[in-house]
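dumping the sequnces here before i forget
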Amino acid sequence: MKRPKALILRGSATNCDIETANAFAYAGACSDLAHINEFLSGKKSVLDYDILAFPGGFSYGDDISAGKIFSVKLEKIAAGLEKFIKDKRPVIGICNGFQIMVKAGLLPQNKGRARTATLFTNDCGHFLAKWIKLKVNTKSPCIFTRGLPSEIELPMAHGEGKFITRDSKTLATILKNNLHVLTYADNPNGSMADIAGICCVCGTVFGLMPHPERNFFSWQHPDRKKVKEALAVGYQFFKNAVEYVR
Amino acid sequence: MELLLSKFSTLNHKQLAALDKKYGWSLNLLELEAAQRYFKKLKREPTRGELETIAQTWSEHCKHKTFSGPVKFRSGRKVKRYKNLFKETIVKATRRLNKQWCLSVFKDNAGVVEFGAGGKWALAFKAETHNHPCALEPYGGAETGVGGVVRDIMGVGLGAKPVLNTDIFCFGRLDSKMKLPKNALGARRIFDGVVEGVRDYGNRMGIPTAAGAVVFDDGYALNPLVFVGCAGIIPRDKIHKKVSPGELIVVIGGSTGRDGIHGATFSSANIAEDTSNSAVQIGHALNEKKALDVLLKARDKNLYSAVTDCGAGGFSSAIGELASECGAIVELEKAELKDTAIEPWEIWVSESQERMVFAVPPKNLKRLAEIADGENCGYCVLGRFTGDNKLRVTFKGESVVALDNAFLHGGIPNYEKNAVFLSPATCNLPPKKIKKPYHQVLKSILSHPNVCSRRSIVSQYDHEVQGGTVVKPFVGPGQNGPSDAAVIWPQAATGDMKDFSGFAAAHGINPAVGRINPYLMALYAADEAVRNLLCVGADITRTALLDNFCAGSPKDPQVMGGLVLAAEGCYAAAMGYGAPFISGKDSFYNQSTDAAGRQYPVPLTLLISAVAPVEDIRKSFSMNLKRPGNPIYLAGTARKGMGGSIYNELYPSGNNALSGLDIKDSFKLYKALLSAMRSGYVMAAHDISDGGFAAAAAEMAFGGDFGADLCPELCFAESGISETELLFGESPSRLLLEVDKKSESDFLSLVSSLQVAKAGYVNNRAELIIINARGKELVKEKNAGLLACWERDLL
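..and the predicted 3d for all of it:
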């Protein structure tokens, strides 16, 4: 069977890139870990790939605000990205990747790619890393979360994860169309409507704050007694993308 | 002063001392005289840059002259002399053990041991202190401390990928009533700043900070200790470096400024009210991450033949070290600068952060430059390595330094330090009876700052980045159980998700024991570190250790006496557990002087960090109770003595005795338990340390959803032991184990000849009950109540 090509797009101080590449490779993709500079210089093109992932980390030190600098760099390859999304090739942003996508206007989906939301400093005022329970919106069109149970556990690790929309209309559109793919069972950062992850209307563009690549195998879970199956819920996110492309 | 410098070789003692004080070199008279003799021989006067280079190279920080110097130890009438204390204790154990899996010890930026199956990888481990900077500027000091130890791992061999950060802090108590001298920072300010610094740097570097400890004690109120450790994975065939003449000196990473002038020499001095904080560097994690990305790419393309980090002493130490067996020519005007007002000698000794120095064959320069450009990482070619064993540094043609390697690296004079140790009086009367019921004592122990939850700190660290933190700081269904050790599966370094090799990292530290007996402090610390590794299922027969000593001024014979005893303890522990030391560091002058001239030294503190392989990370253990009905066993013997315990701090018992530690017996016990764990008989293991048996049992209970019914009196104990000692005593070498009911008889046959006895059972009531042999309830408390005491916020 064809191994789809997954681009793990990194910048300086993106730091969840290798485990994300490992996860896609394990799920059946051919992972390419590449720096945004190679796309800005025209050496590579996003259109040569089937799946695009923005991994977590602190791209460009999260200077100015989380994901901001990386999102500005994306403007230079906006045309390629636009086509990639229009082709319904899957795009996922995890943690810092989600912050980048929101700040680039890729999510929440809107015509002019305007910034209609942000991910702001957690209500607690600092970085917070812990395992959390998430509700999966089974009515959402998201292709990455297909087949997941209605409640899952993933670790979160961020300082700026409070999802806020520009206006109530943006939030209403998300909720009405079931674009809120994941919501926190116990809101850890003050996000509107407990939102932890959102997608576009056709379900192929998806961003989330928690880390599915860190609950990929059962032995990554803090409660070791539950270890029975080797694969954990995080695997499903990556497997779904690979199968969708095939 | 310039005048004095121009007459350096003719100065008298008083003038030399004045010059040293003025320039902040922290050189002693013997060293200054050696320098005088050298320049007399050369028939010229030194430049400022040359004396600065000597001061950096001979500093306590770079040379560890106290620990590796001669010592005369007097104990009663007996006198023992050491030519080199470090070599005759800690290094001696490593040499005698001669483990084949030790690949590089004591010579590089970190110790290196074998890792995983197949001989493809190795593990590098190192711990550093950044105490002086953290006392002056906690946030910046902690950040650059993390940055520095990460660069040590980047600079070991041809460069390792960091996969774990550790952090251990010793602070003054947050509720301290101590009156601090003018300008001293309060404990709260230091605590917050250090935690934030470790968080912001470690998280941005993408390295999980997943193991550590915090000790609160007013002995650290003016001089906090901040230990930062890092472990990295390196290809087995890249653990050695070799510089060849003709290779280029290439610097990558951050640019050079006036921050951190004299960081190395300042660590050889006590902190006074007027100490300048320009000695503290300024960190920027983004630059270090870029340097790391460039380094790993260039390493895998074999573009350089040696690398080291710019740490204390800046270029002078890094280039001096790489050139120590060949020589170098350096042109300082080629350095990337962030400050135009900088003097040439300042460029040479500046400790600006995030810089790595490579030896690059000229033909590879272009490819290295391409990689650096691709990562937006700065670089410059600063000169080249030569074969004449001379260090020549110029700025636009003008000589800044021209010194011989032989003098610079071999010319340091040393003198014998006096050491004595006067043991404090110990009392081994039975602990005083108190009115407070045991369950309330237990609750107050659980909420003691040295026992209570570290969640508010740990949750600020990204302890799971790289996706390989298999045993996390908190385990169990509600993540309420404090782990004994971290287990790391370095999939992000090996790139192989089907290789399940991992390693465990743990610590032992106990300054309260050290106050009574430094020798036992070392034994206890090593024992605790090994036991912690055992609790997660690591192969303790392959434990590698790091020693980090912190003390006051080595000019005080009592400080040196404690050091000698602790170093001897390290030797005994390493030999007993077959666990070689592979690297270490020491930090002296952790001492403050107030305006009235009063001295505040830290208590002698020894941190022992330990790593051991975990063959299959999928089979590692967590400490929370797993299944009602399972028996709970106590391994080891409870011994008399409340010395150094948390109990004694809360309720002075009048008994400050410490029990001895029979390493041979303990190690035999641990090996048997490891084989029981590997056979699948054990469900959970937890070590008994701070707070004793009762605290360990409580942690296992609230770490899971179940409680326990226990009777410690039925287990092995020294005869005549009191209830207080049984419940709250902290005698070493003990663990609690939950054994799978189905395998109980197999378990017993494995440990039949050992001191392992059933203490009770896991219950399904989420309640801890401890009774005595007559059936009287000593403790009866719901998990929730115990957890509430333990979960108090520190931040």
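The two ends of chain B are 48 Å apart (CA to CA).
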